[in-house]
Amino acid sequence: MIETIRPLLAVPQAYQFFWNVIGGPGRSKILVQEYIRPRTGDRILEIGCGPGTIVPYLPDSEYVGFDASPAYVAKARKRFPQAKFSCQRVSQYTPPQSDYFDIVLALGILHHLDDAEASHLFQIAHHALHPGGKLVTLDGVWEKGQSVVSRYLLARDRGRFIREEEEYAELALQFFRDVKPSIRHDLLRIPYTHIILECVR
User: Fold this and answer.
1) Superfamily of segment(s) 2-200
2) What is the CA angle 60-88-161, rounded to 5?
3) What is the tens place of the pLDDT at every residue in 135-160?
4) Cα(173)–Cα(107) distance, integer angstroms
5) How many CA atoms are closer than 13 Å to the CA of 91, on its beta-carbon side?
6) Helix axes 70-79, 12-21, angle to 10 degrees
7) What pTM value is reported for the model?
8) CB 111 within 8 A of CB 163
9) Can you give the residue ranges of every domain in the chain?
């Protein structure tokens, strides 16, 4: 069944439906309230923004997002005309100026990137953030003792670069000195293990 669903997720409408079914809106609320903690007027950059699923949960802010999927970007532009979206891969993106953003988000993107492109993501975030600004990432993670179902679902994720906690942290520490990892098992309606990194410049 999972093998059948996976290709459909490239279609924005199918992705959004699946996202709602598994509890994505609840996950977004927790991320915003407990980890991102944005303020009105913040300048926010999202790397791998998809169809803009986090935007409804953010306060009024200057939001910029980019994604490699033209279909996702087209959907995001239609839904959120007040935000700015572009279609680019991480390896191709250059921030408009350094030290500009208060928050950078990379939600569900690192596990789609090999180490070289993941390192470039952290470099982009560090360059884009002003001193004291924060990068928040969210990805699936391998962990000892996680449930069999969680491991099964992680193994069939579209992302082929799911890592252990230490591996994610090592990538972040190349560019950020202050890296706080958190492991969560309760963010979705399905058994799934997430790692959240809060990286302060």
Assistant:
1) Vaccinia Virus protein VP39 (3.40.50.150)
2) 100
3) 999 999 999 999 999 999 999 998 99
4) 18
5) 7
6) 70
7) 0.91
8) yes
9) 2-200
